[in-house]
Write a structure and sequence with these properties.
Radius of gyration: 18 Å
Largest sheet: 6 strands, mixed
CATH topology of the largest domain: Nuclear Transport Factor 2, Chain: A
Order of helices and strands: HHHEEHEEEE
Strand content: 35-45%
Number of domains: 2
CATH class of the largest domain: Alpha Beta
């Protein structure tokens, strides 16, 4: 990927037409930093805020905010194989079937491509599930799409091996 960034950047400096690289990975570990994709800093910040608001809405049991931050087509995959629609996930929050006491997102990796953002992160949470407080350590991928605002359209969690 870093080679693609370098080649694309060199092509821009030298005036060559560049094709085949319609998006660039934005991560703080690459040579070009957050400015690798021109104009992406604002988008990156907006997506990060939406992800944080969604995390907060889960902990604070705010189904209204979850609805606001997600698309009607949301598919929400859990680590145990259950896949829920937006309405099903919102009902879990509303009913208290799962109560998120704490959620920490670490090792975050965000990729932007036009109006689509993909974030992978480690999800560490304390959740009251089936009446017992349990700790979950998961790897999660989320797909966000921008229309009038950034909205979560897909999420899938897997257990850490």
């Amino acid at each position: 990927m870093r080679t693609a960034i370098l080649i694309t950047t060199l092509g821009l400096f030298l005036g060559f037409a560049t094709t085949g690289c319609s998006h660039l990975r934005v991560d703080t570990g690459n040579f070009w930093g957050d400015r690798a994709q021109l104009g992406s800093t604002e988008n990156r910040n907006e997506v990060e805020r939406a992800i944080e608001r969604f995390r907060w809405a889960m902990v604070e049991r705010r189904p209204d905010l979850i609805l606001h931050l997600s698309a009607a087509i949301l598919t929400f995959g859990h680590s145990m194989g259950v896949v829920q629609s937006r309405e099903e996930f919102v009902e879990v929050i509303r009913s208290g079937a799962e109560i998120f006491k704490r959620i920490d997102l670490t090792d975050r990796r965000l990729t932007l491509s036009g109006d689509v953002a993909i974030e992978r992160h480690h999800f560490s949470a304390d959740i009251v599930y089936e009446g017992k407080l349990r700790n979950f350590e998961l790897e999660v991928v989320e797909v966000w799409q921008r229309s009038d605002r950034w909205r979560l359209i897909a999420r899938q969690a897997v257990k850490v091996q």
